[in-house]
Amino acid sequence: MKKVSFAEFGGPEVLQLIDAEEPHAGPGQIRVAVRAAGVNPVDWRVREGQVLGAHPTRLPSGVGLDAAGVVDEVGAGVEGIEAGDHVFGEGVSTYAEFAVLTAWARMPGGLTFEEAAGYPSVVETALRIIGETGVRAGQTLLVSGASGGVGSAVLQIARDRGIPVIGTAGAANQDYLRSLGALATTYGDGWVERVRRLGRVDAALDLAGSGVIRELVELTGDPRKVVSIADLGAPQLGVLFSGVAGSVPDALAEAAALIARGKLHIPVEKSYTLADAAAAHADSQAGHTRGRRVIVI
């Protein structure tokens, strides 16, 4: 089978499309014929060799956590799913023609494989970090870097829970944030004062790692009300860096329910082939994403 792999840490150029042996489902796992794989910032952070406790890397390594596809192997002890079912979920080395998943759910009706691949990790992350801030209905959440996949999920989940959101993003994505129910403003010079003019901030999320932790603490008045998924230096300022996933099956079930109720939709901004994985990583690292990027097999 074809698979994207890297044998050394480095930039996007270390990614190679190789011929590899097919993986097989072990106990409690399923294997899917991958139709699409999500492109997440954690993918290129791992490729660079960043120290992420939840994702230890042994070289050579495959790439990718999220996938949507057709079940073709069911491991021992797995019930309620069978070959031919369409699922989305999380596993390992999903930039490949076949991948083993350790958490999954049936794809909600109406979703394409391309769309479904964009949900697993971002929804789990969004649910986790909203909870970690302690923000409640009626309190205002500030989201720095709000237009990407996680931000798109946060804005919609928060709206469903009655949590007003202020989102920062580039000028081109202001209308997109507003379409998801957020009060929107641009980042850059003067952004803190622009946020203050929009209202009180009770909790904040750093999704972009753009060096704004001090300002987020200033706006909330409490480092315990700030969570980052992108700035490894956040703990030095008393801010939680959230990098360890909670229950992915629970998150997938909630994602499916939100999608079914019409409360969650994350658009696919751009699709790539396996051979274009390096370009997908370069684009992801450049930021300014609106929604999700996915690899289509």
UniProtKB/TrEMBL annotation:
It is found in: Cytoplasm. It comes from the Bacteria. CDD domains: MDR_like_2 (cd05289). Keywords: Cytoplasm, NADP, RNA-binding. Residues 10-295 form the Enoyl reductase (ER) domain. Pfam families: ADH_N (PF08240), ADH_zinc_N_2 (PF13602). Signal peptide: none annotated. The keyword NADP applies. Homotetramer. This is NADP-dependent oxidoreductase.
